[in-house]
Amino acid sequence: MMRAAAAIAGLFALFAVPFWVIPAYDAEAAGFWQHIFVTIFVFAAMACAWNILGGFAGQLSLGQTIFYGIGGYAAALMNQHFGLIPWIGMFAGAAVSVVVAVLIAWPCLRLRGPFFTLSTIAFLEVIRLLAIHFKDWTGGSAGLPVPMFVGTELRIGWSWMLFREKENYLVIAFGLLVLALIASWLVRRSRLGFSLVAVREREDAARAVGINTTAVKLSAFAISAGLTSLVGSFHGIYLNFIDPETMFSLPTAIQVAMFALIGGLGTVSGPIWGTLLVVPIAEAARGWLGAGANGLHGLVYGVVLVAVVLTMPHGLVGSIGPWLRRRFGAARAVDPTRIAAPVTGDAIARPPIGPVILEAQGLTRRFGGLIATNDVSLTLREGEVLGVIGPNGAGKTTLFNLLSGFLPPSAGTLRVMMPDGSWVTPSAPHAFAAAGVARTFQIVQPFAGLSVLENVMLGAFHQTRSATEARRIAEEVATRCGLGALLLAEARSLTVGGAKRLEVARALAMGPRILLLDEVMAGLNPADVTAAVELVKAVRDSGVAVIAIEHVMAAIMAISDRIIVINSGRMIAEGTPDEIARNPAVIEAYLGEDYVHVAA
Amino acid sequence: MDILIQLIANGVLLGGVFALISIGLTLIFGIVRVVNFAHGELLMVGLYATWLLSAKLGIHPYLAAVPLAIAFFFLGALMQRAIIQPLMNADPHIQIFATVGIGTALANGALMIFSADLRSVDVPWARQATDLFGLASVSRGNLVAFAVSGIATTGLILFLRRTHLGRAIRAVAQNRYAAPLMGIDVNRIYAITFGIGAGCVGLAAAVLAPLYPAFPTVGSFFVLTAFVVVVLGGMGSLEGAVIGALIIGLVESLAGYYVAPDLKEVVYFLIFLGILIVRPAGLFGVRGAE
């Protein structure tokens, strides 16, 4: 509540300064200052929009001026050709931008890191060059003026978005900034926002909790493009002139991104702070060195950017915020070793083992000449625990990747029964999640920068759209898994035992019917193993079917109803724990053939 | 037919120019694993430096080539030490922003100092056309640039293959965690590699100065082409960069004539996007590098 009030007061002040304070103080210079504030609002709005894609989703696009340009041209061309007011052109432009964004993003988003960035730059260049080439539409390099007169009609006033007084521009620019800020705030708090951050932090884990990573990145791209386009429409009219060099400008795209980075990537208010810091510094430097100093802006931007990257890579908000909290003790330090025993509750009667709910036939996976999984068939029944054992390199994790959609099988079929009794064959990780299959990773994959609670919430978002509900489920599941005291700890600070527990909690929060556990007990001390065994039993008793890969023999023998043994990609044995312990083929695989007689 | 031969000759020579600029970029990416977005601005600085040496001190650009390459080696090594080294373990986006920041500062610094005017080095000899076996007519400056490009690339490849330092550099590229176990000072290798990459740019600037004027944004013109070349050839592959450069040179020359002069860049950017999307590792790159 306090924070919301402070944010609204701050925004009001930001508007009041150029609108009332400066004109009252110095009416002569008001026009100049109002121009600067329009620029600040426009860039801050674009930086907020960029941040949804670049900050939340971590997709560093340097081509966002594509949409700024489309917005500018859409409003200007619809005005010129159809006499439409820019308020209509603006939204038409945003619609076009969203479509173009999806078309561009679909191929670009397959690339990662600098390659994604390069592809967005390339699209920007192509569109700029095309805009120059198709002179009949765009006026080419000569540009298009935004006319005040059409014939004798004076097109000025609110409907045409053209004014003689700068105050009105200030109102619209501020409105766009507030719009971008609200959009960014809503996204950050929503399931989409959490999903974007999950994708940024660790894409594989995001897929495991059922996030359709392509779809959420596309959404971020589209939202960002639509907002940027609205700003572009306005700014084109404000500048009274549009041409391909200014509208589809790479330096502008870079500036917008750098404002967001300087302020703090992935924070809601960061882009505004970044713009507010850098634009005035550049203007002040221009004041000292004279208006003739061309290039000074850019020099200041570049130097500030390098300085920020070197000294506070999390930006102003991301670095100063935590410092303030430490300084004034809002957040208490959490001891990351405080893992409690899992809360297994009253022992409920174990439900009977039900019908088959997962069935794999002849699963095979080849990597070049290597056959990592060779003709494996297995079934899993409701309420059953199926253990998977085998020597190192036997292909157990590959089997899990096949069972959870992380790898497509080279041959074989796999089907999962839905609650209504129908059978589905999911193809991607998020489809497996939708079918009720959740998994953990052998090498833990926490969303390292997020808290334990947020990690588990990302699992819970699979069940609900509401953040409040997700938080409730997450708190409940985390407590059940013994992480109740660590809800606010950063995931990266957890011990191995804690991180393994977090893997389980995140998967459980998805509310799965089938849980794949990949070595959740490896590397744990004996007390933690005992606790983990109890946890798996409790999960089983709640009606979830479990497939567990494990090297800790005592544990796997204790929890499994059935065990399958894999060696060199093949299933060499299947049976109850007792049968498996006596099986000569299994002893041979683990200990070598010399030991077979000993056991016999 | 004549015009086609002429276009091919132009394209191949242009490819030589692109190769000279691209090998430094691909070397830095291949070894240091950083995409240097300030690469073009380094070239811009080099072009201005050559212009100053030539116009103010009367030094012939070709004489300035080797000293400039050495000076740029130290400039690059310094840039790596001061700005890139502290960020070696940072997220890729932080590294991108750092080099983008350097590039922005350099381009705008040049705009402040030299204004937006074109500064040309006047070497009449380099502008004269020479006859190529009676088939095509090309400028001497272009031939020199092509020859220097060939020598520099061959030299660099031999250096990496045959010398101890070259092997150490390749070892770091193979596995930056295993290399120090073999007694290689990885951070020193990074600084040297960045230096060599920048040195190639210094050499390129001196050789290209008679052909291209210096202006503050000349870097972004060349660097975008260099990115296309490097991605086409495969990030980190020197041989790939040379072949990529020749392809892009030919595309630019042919598309400029057969498609439209102002769309030639569109053609190779579309090739670029196609390569990124279909085979991001490039023609000669190692899969997975993307």
Number of domains as seen in the coordinates of chain A? 2
Strand order of the largest sheet of chain B: 1-2
Instruction: Outline the biggest β-sheet of chain B.
Output: 2 strands, antiparallel
Q: And the CATH topology of the largest domain in chain A?
A: Rossmann fold
Strand fraction of chain B equals under 5%
> What overall form of chain B do the CA principal axes indicate?
globular
- As a percent range, the share of helical residues of chain A equals 55-70%
| Known CATH architecture of chain B | Orthogonal Bundle
Strand order of the largest sheet of chain A: 10-11-12-7-13-14
> What's the helix-strand series of chain B?
HHHHHEEHHHHHH
What do the pLDDT scores of chain A average to? 87
What is the CATH class of chain B?
A: Mainly Alpha
Counted up, domains of chain B total: 1
Main location (chain B): membrane
Membrane topology (chain B): Multi-pass membrane protein
Transmembrane segments (chain B): 12-35, 65-84, 96-116, 143-160, 189-208, 214-234, 241-260, 266-286
Protein name (chain B): Branched-chain amino acid ABC transporter permease
